[in-house]
Amino acid sequence: MREDGISLTAVELDRGDAIPDLDGFDAMIVMGGPQDVWEEDRYEWLRLEKKAIAHFVQHLKRPYLGICLGHQLLADALGGEVRLSEQPEVGVMNVMKTASGAADTLFGSLADPIRALQWHGAEVVTPPDGAEVLAYSPACAIQAFRYGEFAYGLQFHVEATRDTVSDWAAIPAYTRALERALGEGAVGRLESEVLDCLPIFNATARQVYNGFKSKFRAATA
Questions:
Q1: What are the residue numbers of the active site?
Q2: What domains lie within the chain, and their CATH numbers?
Q3: Which residues 6+ apart lie within 8 Å of 202 measured at CB?
Q4: pTM of the entire structure?
Q5: Each residue of 78-125: pLDDT tens digit?
């Protein structure tokens, strides 16, 4: 993004940052985290975050990209439903495109299936009214959706790096989920698998970024 001359402002609500005036921003990207969308009493900033997302997407009508928790927050903020998964997904897995996904201007260029890193125990079970489901997996019917022209949610991770697994394994809740799904020693095994797939992940991330960049440039033209 910096190479493209895009100015970035990072807001870490879990560390006490305040949400800035959103009128001055052309796009919003919300990443993942160990929280669940319904834990508002434990994480009070979730209420503010959902209101900010709804305002940005529905009223300002500006581009939004949500990854994992950011995908679930988008759905919840716009009237969809998020629940605990019957079968949590953790590991490197395939995600398939729907017909709408194949025709979508951002998703259409992606491989089918999409090889992706999964690490979630909750999922969107009902998308917001009017949303288009773009991708699915055998265990999760809504892996991605688009709301309106510019707002996207992705349950799977396209932003993986060589340090992703070790960084996330430092979060106890993530490690517990990983070992429940894949057994003892899962961190090392998954780290190796992610490294093997890193060129694929990076190519997918670049395609998603380029598609999203086109969206927010079109929205601000």
A1: 68, 157, 159
A2: 25-219 (3.40.50.880)
A3: none
A4: 0.93
A5: 999 999 999 889 889 999 999 999 999 999 999 999 999 998 989 999
